Amino acid sequence: MPKATTAPKHIPQVDYIRAIASVGVALFHLGGKALPVLKYGWLGVHMFFVLSGFIIFKAIPQNYSWRLAPKFIAKRIIRIEPPYIISIAVVLLINLIMAGLSLAPYTKPDWANLAGHLAYINNFSDAQYVNPVYWTLGIEFQFYLFVALAFPLLNNKWGAWALLGLSVLSHYLHLPGANLLGLFPVFALGILFYLYSTQKTTLLTALLFALPITFISYLNMGWMETSAGWFALILLALPLKANRIIGFFSAISFSLYLTHDTVGSRLVATMGQHLPKTFGFKALEFGTGIIVSILFAYAFYILVEKPCLKLSKRITYS
């Protein structure tokens, strides 16, 4: 019987990636159109994908086998699904409140579309999302299914070869729309770093395989997305020390990611409709949006995400 794995040692570099990526995406949605310096914040998404490739593998015990796949999937569902569902409920509630205050027209919920949200299948259609960040959750869930099956095949000295082969296939089998196939190379870079960090491969071998995978990532997505992935890799490799502020934003990163557009962007847009369009008032809107987004994310983390995180940890691989 596999032994229960202990919680992985805290990795400060992971905090930096989570903090930078989540804040970057939030700043992009809150003011990216008005402030050119923020227009690349959306690339935080690809930093998250590289991080998932590394940290999801890192959290799995070395003696994982396919019979433990249900527990792995259960842990991930409990970790992300309740916060996701409640964040959707927040979207619907705010839609109702804004309509009631005559701040926006009421949009009747499309229940079939919302069911697609919850089943993570909207990525395979042209369905619209009620929150612009939700498309990435479908990608993540596809990755979890992949990991549940592929971990025993990749967690060895031949893993780098398998990652390269899968990356090549991802280019030729790339489906239309946002899905794991097209984005796989950035996940592969994170997995490759995991293989190096656990001594399944050498640094030289990891770098040699990273080159063609990086090129395929460029072909699939472009140089900006690929560069964002490499920025995450560089952060993983740097000897960074724990920082309380970074740690705070890392802790609330998922909650901030889920709720900033629903709360902060809506607030900024509503203020913009009723305040003078001067630089000072635009700065006020932006600053207010940031502060409210962070405060709401912290409350969401304490009330929703943290209990789910604790519950998911109660499922062990023993």
Quick description:
The chain crosses the membrane at residues 40-61, 82-104, 133-151, 180-196, 203-224, 230-258, 279-304. The protein is mainly α. The chain is built from twelve helices and no strands.
Characterise this structure.
The protein has about 325 residues and is an all-alpha fold. It has helices spanning about 10-30, 45-60, 70-100, 110-120, 135-155, 160-170, 180-195, 205-220, 225-235, 245-250, 255-275, 280-315. The protein has one domain (about 15-25, about 65-260, about 295-315). The longest helix has about 35 residues, at about 280-315. The N and C termini lie close together (about 5 Å). Residues about 1-5 have low confidence and may be disordered.
Topology, element by element:
Elements: H1 12-31, H2 44-58, H3 69-100, H4 111-118, H5 135-154, H6 159-172, H7 180-197, H8 203-220, H9 223-237, H10 244-251, H11 253-274, H12 279-313
Helix pairs in contact: 1-2, 1-9, 1-10, 1-11, 1-12, 2-5, 2-7, 2-9, 3-5, 3-11, 3-12, 6-7, 6-8, 7-8, 7-9, 8-9, 11-12
Nearest-integer average pLDDT: 92
Number of domains: 1
Radius of gyration: 20 Å
Poorly predicted segments:
1-7
The helix-strand sequence is HHHHHHHHHHHH
Beta-strand share of residues: under 5%
Q: How many strand units?
A: 0
Helix coverage percent of residues? Answer: over 70%
SS-derived structural category? mainly alpha
Ends apart, CA distance between termini = 7 Å
Q: What is the number of helical segments per DSSP (H or I, 4+ residues)?
A: 12
Question: How is the main sheet built?
Answer: none
- Assign an overall shape: globular
